[in-house]
Specification:
about 290 residues, alpha+beta, 4 helices, about 15% helix, disordered N terminus, C-type_lectin/snaclec_domain, CTDL_fold, C-type_lectin_CS
Length: about 290
């Protein structure tokens, strides 16, 4: 069976469940063990956009919960501990200091290897040995987000909207032409997504993860308003691009051309005919319900 994980489709698991789908509840918090790889700073940006932060560790019970999850996944994960502000002084994302009684450093760690390791990493060796290490913040690893179970959502999670920056985003599951997808987004007081920052570009790659590699999605870029001149549907200037090799190349010279994002090109953009039916990403201001 083709499996497509779309993180933009976060909804609640059941009535009374206060963690979004894909997040795990423990005590008073929700945790997301990401299957995507980012630098420490980019991972933190994603967590904050989802109304949380990189995970801290406040109790032994919480530490044991995370250890168990890492053992089941057998992967290394970024978490919130860091000494970026002052070498050797480890703090959590909110600036509070590490309680050394909770520390789980590996032998001879942290060692600030080559004077360039400032970010906390959960690591696992031999399938069961879980500990902390200091890592190079620019390296790409999976990551753990944490947010309060009582977080008041800024977006309509129950209908598939999730926050990023000051906007809410939703995957439109129905396959539509570009024009129909735009109309669908507008019917929900939104627009097809426009990408004007590197953060939004990362959001696209983090939220569209498909093993069905032909399952492309529409974004808001097209030449419908001015043939041959690609522009965002929301009127934002085209300043950020992520073109595939040989792109942009008009698919319908003299006709209507629209832009898709395809998973098997590492989320690169391609120009294609606007009447092809695809899923789409909508965006709208936070607080819209």
């Amino acid at each position: 069976m083709i499996r497509c994980i779309i993180l933009l489709c976060l909804t609640y698991q059941a009535f009374g469940q206060r963690c979004p789908l894909g997040w795990l509840p423990f005590k008073d918090n929700c945790y997301k063990f990401s299957d995507r790889w980012f630098s420490w700073d980019d991972a933190r940006a994603v967590c904050k956009a989802r109304q949380g932060d990189l995970a801290d560790v406040r109790t032994l019970e919480e530490r044991d919960f995370i250890v168990g999850e890492i053992r089941s996944r057998r992967q290394h994960f970024w978490f919130g501990l860091n000494d970026k502000a002052r070498e050797g002084k480890y703090v959590w994302p909110d600036g509070s200091p590490l309680d050394n009684n909770l520390a789980l450093w590996a032998k001879n760690q942290p060692n600030n290897w080559k004077n360039r390791q400032d970010c906390g990493l959960w690591q696992i060796w031999n399938s069961t040995e879980v500990s902390w290490n200091d890592g190079e913040c620019y390296a790409n690893y999976r990551y753990i987000c944490k947010r309060s179970i009582n977080t008041v959502d800024k977006c309509d999670f129950s209908n598939g909207w999730v926050p990023f920056g000051d906007k809410c985003f939703r995957l439109e599951e129905s396959k539509l032409s570009w024009r129909d997808a735009l109309a669908r987004c507008k019917s929900m007081d939104g627009n097809l997504v426009g990408i004007d920052t590197q953060e939004k570009l990362r959001m696209i790659s983090d939220t569209v993860t498909c093993t069905d590699t032909n399952n492309a999605v529409w974004i808001g870029l097209s030449d419908i308003k001015s043939p041959g001149n690609l522009a965002w549907a929301d009127g934002v200037a085209v300043t950020i691009t992520n073109w595939d090799v040989g792109q942009p190349k008009l698919a319908v010279p003299g006709g209507e051309n629209c832009v898709e994002v395809l998973a098997n090109t590492r989320y690169k953009w391609r120009v294609t005919a606007c009447d092809v039916e695809k899923k789409a990403i909508c965006e709208r201001p936070q607080g819209t319900f």
